Amino acid sequence: MTNSKKIYIETYGCQMNVSDTEIVRSILSKDGYQFINSPEAADVILLNTCSIRENAETTIHKRLANLNTIKKENENLVVGILGCMAKQSGRKLLQTNDMVGIVAGPDEYRKLPELITNCFEGIKGMAVNLSRIETYDDITPLRTEGVSAWLTIMRGCDNFCSYCVVPFARGRERSRVSSSLISEIEKLTEQGFREITLLGQNVNSYKCPESGDSFSTLLEKSAAAGQGMRIRYVTSHPKDMSPELIEAMARNHKICNHIHLPVQSGSNDVLKAMRRDYTKERFLELTKLIRSNIPDASITTDIIAGYPGETQQDHEETLELMQEVQFDGAFMFKYSPREGTKAFKVEDSVPEEEKAHRLNEIIQLQSEISKLSNLNEIGRLHEILVEKPSKRNRDEWVGRTDTNKTTIFPNKEGSYKAGDFVNLKITRSTSATLFGEVVQV
Ligand code: SAH
Ligand code: SF4
Ligand code: F3S
Predict the structure, then answer these.
(1) Which member of 21, 103, 173, 231 has the lowest number of beta carbons within 10 Å of its beta carbon?
(2) What is the pTM of this model?
(3) Whose atoms come closest to the Cα of 167: which ligand?
(4) pLDDT tens digits, one per residue of 323-356
(5) Cross-strand bridge partners of residue 438
(6) Are strands 174-175 and 421-429 parallel, antiparallel or unpaired?
């Protein structure tokens, strides 16, 4: 189908949204739409949004205010809100923001062509139903980049952690059929991709609806299907981390030695209130099991500071746990109350200033730990997947280790290109980056 209309999409939030944007691009390109890289000349602007914390939503409100100048120049411009915020606050946005003409939640992207056509005719529309079955299994995402591919293996989440909007924004957990995932991986191999990240909110509870394959089986099948490729995954929930999965990672060198294992807190009282379903002791056992089976593994985490009722003692237990585990990296956040969640009903009792103080202590400590962990890398050898030139110096290139550490190296006379695997010896490091030089092994 031909269509002269141009679409511009911006993506916010987690990798699930990055992957969904590729599905949206696929659906709309079948309808003939062209995609462009800046909003000024667009007929349609879509924002694929996130609701995880209040500031994620504030960012979108600001962006909409900002896009108003383009809407004033082009009154036929269609503006659509996709993603988690569409489900969570789409109705309100449609009612209160004149610019917004379309609201489509994560399970309703097949309706986008119709919603956009209607909107060009002046009819605003909203589709935010959640589905128990939608996995977009038959839609091949339109990927824009040729080295690393995201592959969504499951959608939604059934865990209902007390603070989290994801189960409300994305609905019940459902897994894609493993045979269809494996044929997608085979196609990605043919297209020259060198790394695939299997995606889901809780990948280790993946279960193939046809064969019953578990996540570790899928992971091993993926590694076998992806020729010349690395396989990664995010995110795993500590309560579902099985010894089989750790063994599969230890056995198979194509599966990257990186585990993102969000702990959230080091206090058993807080973990219980969060409904995380594991204790600090269990978490520590798990990290020991990972390190004894896979000595080189990097373990990263997520931490929330200032959950309702969190005491100074609880906070200190989080710092102690961080000291004990020595995470290689962490995403750290201030607790943000989210409407509809269980925690929203209890008082947000830690004062803002105290939350900021605790978060700061957590960030400081992690920065020291990351610095130390990266100092220990000096002299080590790593195989790097080359990604792109460094922004600071075009003669230097950026890649990542198997353990997911960003690494910079000189690309003398342009000998290497994106997608190459290169062996580096680490010569220097900061808390965020490794630096290395190419060695022959
Ligand atoms: N499914 C993943 C996490 C997805 S959300 C998991 O369970 O591990 C990413 C991170 O955002 C969470 O791990 C948590 O640390 C943080 N987060 C989620 N809701 C939050 C809230 N209301 N306030 C602050 N941080 C939050
Ligand atoms: Fe949210 Fe918990 Fe599900 Fe992660 S596991 S997406 S934190 S409800
Ligand atoms: Fe945000 Fe939705 Fe991801 S709330 S973090 S975009 S699942």
Answers:
(1) 173
(2) 0.96
(3) 2
(4) 999 999 999 999 999 999 999 999 999 999 999 9
(5) 424
(6) unpaired
d(CA 308, ligand 3 centre) in Å: 22
The domain 381-438 having CATH identifier 2.40.50.140: the answer here is yes
Instruction: Please work out whether the CB of residue 338 comes within 6 Å of at least one atom of ligand 1.
Output: yes
DSSP state, residue 31: T
How is the chain split among helix, strand and coil, in percent rounded to 5? Answer: 40, 25, 40
Q: What is the pLDDT of residue 414?
A: 77
Residues of the chain with CATH 3.40.50.12160: 6-127
Sorted by sequence, the CB contacts under 8 Å of residue 397 that are 6+ apart come out as 386, 387, 388, 389, 390, 408, 409, 410, 411, 416
**Which residue pairs, CB below 8 angstroms and at least 24 apart, start in 100-106?**
100/64, 100/124, 101/125, 102/46, 102/78, 102/126, 103/127, 103/128, 104/80, 104/128, 105/129, 105/130, 105/169, 106/16, 106/20, 106/82, 106/130, 106/155, 106/169, 106/170, 106/171
Q: Is the CB of 336 under 6 A from ligand 1?
A: yes
CB under 6 Å to ligand 2: residues? 157, 159-161, 164, 166-167, 201-202, 237
CA-CA distance, 400 to 409, in Å (whole number)?
Answer: 11
Percent of the chain at pLDDT exceeding 70: 100
Exposed e or buried b per residue across 318-355, where buried means at least 16 C-beta atoms within 10 angstroms of its C-beta: bbebbeebebbbbebbbbbebeebebeeeebebeeeeb
52 CA from centroid of ligand 1 (Å): 7
Sheet with 298-305, strands from edge to edge, namely 258-260, 298-305, 329-334
344, amino acid identity:
F
DSSP string, 118-150: HHHTT--EEE----SS---TTPPP----SSEEE
Provide the pLDDT confidence category of residue 394 given band limits of 50, 70 and 90. confident
> What is the C-alpha to C-alpha distance for residues 287 and 298, in angstroms, rounded to an integer?
10
* Token reading at 219: 């992971």
- CATH topology classification for 6-127: Rossmann fold (3.40.50)
Structure tokens at 119: 């909107």
3-state secondary structure 66-102: HHHHHHHHCCCCEEEEEEHHHHHHHHHHHHHCCCEEE
In this prediction, residues 243-259 reach a mean pLDDT of 96
Ligand at minimal distance from the CA of 56 is: 3
Euclidean distance between CA atoms 21 and 15, whole angstroms: 10
